[in-house]
From TrEMBL:
This is Sporulation-control protein. Residues 213-232 are annotated as: Disordered. It comes from Stackebrandtia endophytica. Residues 216-232 have a biased composition (Polar residues). InterPro entries: Spore_0_M. PANTHER family: SPORULATION-CONTROL PROTEIN SPO0M (PTHR40053:SF1).
Amino acid sequence: MVLRILKAVLGVGVTVDTVLSETTISPGGTLHGEVKFTGGEVDQKVEGITLEFTALVENDAKGESHTSTYHFHRAQVSGPFQLAQGSTHSVQFEIPVPWETPVNSLDGRPLPGMTLGVSTELALDKAFDKGDLDPLTVEPLPVQAAALRAMETLGFVFQVADLEAGTIPGSHMPFYQEIEYWPSGDFRDSFQEVEMTFVSGKSTTDIVLQADDRGSLTSPSHDTYQRFTVNNDEPGDLVEQLRGQLQQLASRRTA
């Protein structure tokens, strides 16, 4: 929940309270909530309310790494309305969650390195105010969760997750997520690390694997990159599929 007071043009206070019905969502799902207002000492015209999905993204431009705030999805939840002096007003909303929304939790366990949230933008008398970030927990799609668990079954140990600036083939996002693993078990001598990326849609998900490479997925090397597509509803045995894909990647690196 975000509670803040906006100062209107005449110096009076308008209280805005954004309440999310749930703080845990999944890609392709729906975010429900309500924005509540209490008018100040004079009548005000609210010109619109917009909610934004927000993420912190690593940007390595010009060889220097820094973190930037990306607003990757905007949804208008209200058009203009009058907010009378001292009155209350509320707007309920349902916002579709983009299929490519990155994940930051698995079975209730946070994935360290990820910051995701939603903020409320209010247009009031031709002025704009953007509220604080309301944190969101994004659990993976079943097919994504199965892939993450399959990596653990194959002996890979999760290390960290982050977002990198850039758009990879097939994606509509200005960034991509990297979920980093260290190998053990059968693959301990094949890789130093493996990063997994998802490009998901309504019907299918592409699983992208990148090994031992500090470059960018926007222009990956053939020797460090493997990509395959699975059906969201019937992905099959992802342990064996990932084993085969990783073996192909390892064989190219040693050829």
